[in-house]
Amino acid sequence: MGTISNPNLKPISARKEESGASKKKKRKINNEKTAKLADAAAKFFKLDSSSTPESETLSNDTERQSGDPDAADVPISSASDTALEVQENQGETDSGVRGFEIYENAFIASDPSTWNNPLKSGERSQLMSNRPLQEIPKQGEQGSVSFNVSQYNKIGSNPNNPNELYARDWLLYSVSTNSLFCYCCSLFARIDSRKTQSPWINFGIGNSGFNDFVHQSRRIKGHEESQMHFQALICWRQSEKASRSGNSLEKLATAEMQKGIHHWKQVLHCIVDAILYLAKNNLAFRGSSSQIHDDNSGNFLSLIELLSKYSPALAIHVNNLSKNRTSYLSPSIQNEFISIAGENIRREILKHIKSRKFFSIMFDATPDISHREQISEIIRTVKISKDGCYIEENFIRFISFDGKTGEQLTKMIVDTLKNDDLDIGMCRGQGYDNGSNMAGMYKGVQARVKEINPKAICIPCAAHSLNLVGHNAVNKVPAAKLLLGQIQNLYTFFSASPSRWTILKKHTKKTLKAQSHTRWSCKYDAVSALLEEFDGVYEALLELAESSEVNAQTCADADAHFNQIKKDMEVDAGAKHLRCLLDWLNEFRVNGYDKSLEKAKARASEIGVNCNSGFDYRASRGNRPSRYRDGVQNPPTQSNEETFKSEFFQKIMDQIIDEIRSRFQTLQQVASDFSFLWGHKLETYSSEEMKKNVMDLVKSYGNDFVGETFLREVEHLKRAISAFLDKPLQKTMPLDILNVLTANGLQEQFINCHTALRIFLTLPVTVATNERSFSKLKIINNYLRSSMGQERLSDLSIISIEHNYVKDMSFDKIIDDFAVAKCRNVQF
């Protein structure tokens, strides 16, 4: 047969014949040792080359052949070139177990029956970097039915030359199970090949491999020539070559994994981009179909289909979609990405709020399309930056809440701030509408919050207050209420019919405007539109009243409106854009009437209206029956102009002035408390006045300021900032002073002034931002999307309202959050 030339083959001791009983006894002892092998693994150590006897040292040619995998396929030309000196190692025990390589996970590299199946992380790399030694059968088990170690070598194609041998370095013998395994097939066989349950790859703890030793020569050769073995062997050689060149199997697998991760990230980038685009623009996502190529698939899937034309990765993904394949396009995945994006924006906003220390809360409510009460949460802060200081009012969420009492609403607000990790002790302002449950003096939300934090000043919403000023003033003056009612009826008459509206547009350039109960400026717009287009409205009504193509009711209504606007035209001059400044209103009350009267007369003259009519309808209301006239002196008769002045103009002006004084008292008081820090007062106040204002502010805000230091800062503030101002000091505003201190690094020297300005600018003036969030609510949660969940509604709203944060959002961060949220089908 020739000399054995396998470099991994260990020395074989001289064979000694033993009795059957002796063999049986030894086999029993060995089986018991094998059963305890896993627990006794620490007894075995990797064979150290430094302790190997010289008799076991391989020749140079043999070392070259063992180290070079490609050399295993080179025929061995002569026995002398590959001869091994075979001697028994004196240090070897009788157990027959040697050369076992023990790793941290306690499996034996040379025994596939002790490997994990499947292999754990890192075990494949260990087996690749430390190729297992080829074990030999234990003494006494070599015979006709045992493994023949000569099978470790393959005879060349010329049977007449038995010295031409090739090493089967893929063949492993398991001592523990007395069976054979294929090393390369166990590590590199394809998944479909593993389903064949071949004994050659049946590795695993306690598993047996091939043990038909009667036919071992034929069966080993058959496996060697199989397709599975050929493919696995090629893969093994390629991985060894890659390892020698620095590209190990682990690196190749990592590179392949990174390639897959890159592909999926490109796909998910497109998906996230599409979701954020639709959310920012308040567009619906889904259609009636969930198939991407259907006509009714909705905006999201249609947008994905469009993007796939310009993204190769997304195009591959869309083309490979199937029923059981991961798509990440389902509605639940859309909701996950919406939730992650919304939460990231919310987290970023709250982080900025906490870094700015002081904040104000603003809450307002409105019913949605599903008749649920939606409360909008807005936080107002001042952004401090050397590039410029800004006031920011950030939307946080919509809260569905049914409670109506001040106690219930206060608990909800306090709990919400706690969940947002915001300290209510740092709240310096409250902003609500003027409802009694919110702004009530004793049991409203603002009063209950002030019990928790006395520094949280509530300022009634200026916009709501101004609207109530005009609304209440008109309701208390019958003539004004009648006038606005007639103007609204005129708009309703024309807008109720497209044909009437067409006739109106034919005669006017500017159409009539509707009035709103919550927006006083709409009343001004309605009156102004009628004043400017009176001639056209007049002609349109006349055409309708005389037309034979309209019904009798329309003719009657047109004729009635025609007569109304003829009769009351002079009071149209009362349409004014009311200001909230009391001095202007007082001056206008004294001097404005004559100017307004002259304008009204000029306009009435242009359109042919009698200026002496308009209030004569009141004359009949004052007449008494004849039986009551005796002894009663009738009041002196007033002219039409005098009646208009006393009954309309003066009454409505007095009511507006009284309403403004009462409703804006808190706003004026707060502005007065802080006003010594800017403008005219900073320039002109005396030292005593400054001291009084400073001490009053310190008393109100406690430990936010240090009194003596604050006073010294204010005394030096005027001189310090004058050189940095680009406008006269008396024209400066609070934000101007704050910007000067921040941009020029003076906040440390004027820390109390800087803090006071920040607190003042943090205080809310209106809840207009809440009202604007309601506009988004009506767009997002419309009648076609009325079943939308609360969390989805809040997340879509914050993406739409706070879209500036979306521009700076990291898509990779969203994808990473998506990946760690739960176990995914793919890795990215």
From TrEMBL:
<dbReference type="InterPro" id="IPR008906">
    <property type="entry name" value="HATC_C_dom"/>
</dbReference>
<protein>
    <submittedName>
        <fullName>Zinc finger MYM-type protein 1</fullName>
    </submittedName>
</protein>
<dbReference type="GO" id="GO:0046983">
    <property type="term" value="F:protein dimerization activity"/>
</dbReference>
<dbReference type="InterPro" id="IPR012337">
    <property type="entry name" value="RNaseH-like_sf"/>
</dbReference>
<feature type="region of interest" description="Disordered">
    <location>
        <begin position="45"/>
        <end position="76"/>
    </location>
</feature>
<feature type="region of interest" description="Disordered">
    <location>
        <begin position="620"/>
        <end position="640"/>
    </location>
</feature>
<feature type="region of interest" description="Disordered">
    <location>
        <begin position="1"/>
        <end position="33"/>
    </location>
</feature>
<feature type="domain" description="HAT C-terminal dimerisation">
    <location>
        <begin position="733"/>
        <end position="804"/>
    </location>
</feature>
<dbReference type="Pfam" id="PF05699">
    <property type="entry name" value="Dimer_Tnp_hAT"/>
</dbReference>
<dbReference type="InterPro" id="IPR025398">
    <property type="entry name" value="DUF4371"/>
</dbReference>
<feature type="compositionally biased region" description="Polar residues">
    <location>
        <begin position="49"/>
        <end position="60"/>
    </location>
</feature>
<feature type="domain" description="DUF4371">
    <location>
        <begin position="236"/>
        <end position="444"/>
    </location>
</feature>
<dbReference type="Pfam" id="PF14291">
    <property type="entry name" value="DUF4371"/>
</dbReference>
